[in-house]
Amino acid sequence: MKAYVAQHGNALVPSDYPANESLGQWVLSQRRNYKRGASGGYKKYKYKENTTTLSTERIEKLNEIGFVWDVHEAQWFERLEELKLYIAD
Question: Which one is predicted more confidently, 45 or 59?
């Protein structure tokens, strides 16, 4: 994960990342576990039982390297910044 961030400048690893398919699937799994509400993840998602292994410590470690929990939200804000630059020109 750290190597991906160093190479690409972000933590937006696609789930079908061809250079490392297992990394893409692992990232997808971390995002799903976070959304399930484990250790402070999104609370808007409700599941009958919490079977995740994503601890607060793991969340903190991923946050330290700029892990992107919500890809759609990150892309939305990226487009917003592009729009601001366009308007400023």
Answer: 59
